[in-house]
Batch of 2 targets.
Target 1
Amino acid sequence: MLCAGDSLALSLPGFDTYAWSPASGLSCADCPDVVLFPGATTTYTLLATTSDGCVLRDTFTVEVFPIPSVAINLSFCPGESVTIDGVTYTQSGTVSSVIPAPNGCDTLATYMLTLLPQPSVTKTISFCPGESVTIDGVTYTQPGTVSGVIPAATGCDTLATYVLKFATPAPSQVDISCPPDVDIAISPGAGPTVATYNLPSASSDCSCPGLTLQLVSGLPSGSAFPPGATKVCYQAKDACGNTASCCFEVMIREEQPCDIKKTGCMKYELLSITKDAAGKRTYTIRVTNSCPNPLTYTAIQLPDGVIAKAPANNSVYTAPGGRKYDVRNPNYSPFYSIRFKSTTDSIANGESDIFEYVLPPQAQPAYIHITSRLEPQQFYEAHLNTYYCPVGVTPVPKVEARFVPESTAGLNVLFPNPTTGSLYADLSNRAGESVQIQIFDSRGQRVQWFETTAETTVQEFHLPESIANGLYFFEITGGSGSRQTTRFVLQR
C-alpha cells in the first residue's frame, strides 16, 4: 500500500536475469533492485532465472491511495496575523501545507487567507457650550476630532472618528420683563440717593442652556442715583445668541411735602393738591411704613356724603412702585373714607407707596384724617393739614393711568413692551365694535388718534416716527363710552 506520490524499494539478489512488468512505475525493468512509484494501483509480475535453470515467478499488487486534501478559509482583521508551518502571514493569499497523519496518508491542506476590510465610521457629535462629551473615558469640552475604537462582538472592531462641534442653535425667543419704575422723593438739595430695585426676569426657549443678564445703561441696584430721572436698561442673551432688552426709570424726585405727620413707625406726607379744568382736585399722599409689620390697608377720610371721583369702587389701584391695592370707595370703617387694601405683598421696613384720589369740586377739606392698619392688628392714624398746599394743575392722563380697573373688558393684552414702533393689541373682547384709539405722552398730550373696528385676531398699530422715546399711554374707548388705558414704553 502506498500513498500517492510515495515510492517502494524492492531488492531480490541471487538471480541472473530479471524481468519486471509492466515497466510503468518502475525505476528498472531488469534489475535486482527496483523502486516502485506507481501513479495508481498496479499489479506487477516478476520473472527471475538463474543460469542453472532455476526460475522465480511472482505477481503482486501495489495499491495506491489518493492523498487526502482539505481547503481551509482563514479570515483575520487588519493588524492581526496567521502563522502556518512557522511562517507568519499578514496579507490575503493562498498557502499549501501538509498535515501529518498518525496513520494512513498525510493530508494536503490549502489555506485561503483573507484580510478582512477595516470597518470605520465617522460620527458628528454636537453639544452646547458649557457641556461635555465623554469618549473612551476621556471628557472633552471643546470642538475637535477624536479617534476611538468600537469593540465588535464578532468580526473586526470598528475604527471610529468623532467630530466634536458646538451645536448650531435653532432660532429662539428671549423674553425679558423689567421691574416697575422706581420713584423716590427726597428733600431739595439732598443730592444722590441710594435706590434698589429687583433685577429683570428673563427666559428663553433656546435648546442650549444659559441665559446672561447684562446692565447696558444706567446704574446697578444699590447705587447712588442723581436727582432726576435715570434710565436703566438690561439685556438678556441666551446661548443661541438672541437677545431682548427692557428699560425702566429710577426717579429721584426733589420735593417738599405740604405737610408731614409722624406717628410711631408710620409717616404720612401730603405731597400735592392739583386741580383739573373741571375743578376736580387730585390729592397725592405718600405713606411710609418703617415697621417690620406689612401694611394691610390705608384709609383716607372723605368729606361726609362725598364719593371720590377716582379711583372707582372695587377697582385696582396701581401705585407708582408697581404694588396693587383693592379700592373701596366709599369705605365706612373705621370712619367714612376711601380705602386702599394691599392685594399681595405690601410696604414694610422703611418702604413707601404713593396714593392718589380725586374729589369733586365742592369737596375741599381743610385737613385729612388718615389711618393705617398693619399686620396683624396694629393701627396708626394722623391728621394732615391741606392749607399749606398750593393747588397745581393736574396733568392728563397722569391720574387716569393710575385708576384703570383691572379687567379684560376691551384690551386683553398689549405687546411688545417696550416697543420699537409697532404695537399689537388683542381687542377680541370687543370684536365687531367700533373703537377709538388714542396715544398720550407722559405729559398728557395726545400724539395719535384713530378709529378702527375690533377684530377677533391680534391687531397691529404703528406709532408715528416723529415721537420720541419714553413712556406713553394706550387708551381704547368703546361705543358705550367705556375706556381702558395701558402704559407702554417706546424705545427705538
Target 2
Amino acid sequence: MHRRPLLALFVALGLAATASACKKKDDAGTAGSGSSATGDIVIGHYASMTGNTAHFGQDTDKAARLAAEQINEAGGVLGRKLKVVTLDTRGDGADAANAVTRLIDVEKSTAILGEVASSLSLQGGPIAQRRKIPMVSPSSTNPKVTQIGDYVFRVCYIDPFQGKVMAHFARNTLKLDKVAILKDVKNDYSKGLAEAFQKAFLALGGTIAVEQSYSAGDTDFSAQVTAIKGSAAQAIWVPGYYSEVASIARTAQRLGLKVPLLGGDGWDAPELFGIAGDSLNGSYFSNHFAPDQASPKAQKFVADFTAKYGQPPTGLGALGYDGVLVIADALKRANSAEPAKLRDALAATKGLEAVTGTLTMDKERNPEKSVVVLKIDGGKAKYETLVQP
C-alpha cells in the first residue's frame, strides 16, 4: 500500500544522506576542522614518545607543556588557554601520518607541533598541508619539510646551513684535510646532512677519505670503523642520532681509531654520554643553543625546565618551547585562531626573541638564526663557538 510515495521518500532521503556524506568527505580532504571560537586552543603535538629516539619526543613534549603552562599563567592567548595534546609516533612514518589526522579530526587542533625527525615530518606534513592546519616542526632540519607547502613551518635551521657550518669548522678551525663520512642510509636527516657537509668540505679543498653507511637500529659497526681506520681519515662526519653515534664512538675506541667524530643536532641527548662514556671526548657537534652560553631568556628556560623536571633540557627541548612560543605569538598577532589567519601570521614572524635565538621567518618558512658548535669534554658538551647565518 502506498509503495510509490514511500519508495520516493526513501530514495530522496538516501540521496540527501549520500550528498551530506560526500560533502563531509570533501571537507575532510581539504579544509581543516581544528579551529573553534571558544574553549581551549589545542596545539596537537606528534612525537616519538617511545622507541629508539624517545628522548627527542619526551624532551620536546616537556618543554612544549612548560611553554603552554607559562603562557596560560600569564593570561593565555586571546582570552583562552593553550592545551597541548600529544600522540606517540613510536618513530614510525605511518603512525606519524595517523597521528596528525587524529589530532585534526578528533582533537580539533588549531595548530600542529612536530615532528622532531625529518622523515616523520615528511609523513605528517602533507596531512596538515592538505587539511590547511598550520604545522610547526621544532627540529626537522631537512629542507624538504617546509617544501611540502605553505602551511608547514619550522623553528630550527636547515641541514644545508648546519652541514656547511660544520664543514667550515672542520676545514678552517680544526685544519682537517681528509674526513670520512658514516651516514644512516634510511634516515632523511642523516642523508641530507651528509650531502651538505660533503659539498661544502670539497668546495673548501678538503677530501672525503671514504664513505660508509649503516641503518638505524644497527648495533655492530666494526666493518665500517675498520674501513675508515684504513683510510687515514683525520675525523669522521657522523650525522646520525645519539643511539647509533654512541655505539660508533665506542667501536672506534675499541678498535684504536683515535680521531674526533663530528656531527649535528641529532647527537643532543643525555643518553649519548651514558652510552659513549669517554669515547667521544674531543668530538664536536652543532646544536641550537648552549646552556653555558645562553641568553637571559634561555637561562630562565633552563632554570624553569630543570626545576620542573629535575634535569636540564637539551637543544631539542628548547626548540619545543620555541615552537609553542612562535604559535602563541602568531595567534596574538592574527587576533584569531582561524587556521588561514594563523598561517599568515606565522609567515610574518619577525624578530621574535626565543630561547634558541631571535627568529625571523624567511619566504620558505625557515627561520634565520645562528648555529652553536659544542665540544665534548669529560662526558659533557660545552660551548665552543657561535656561527651567524
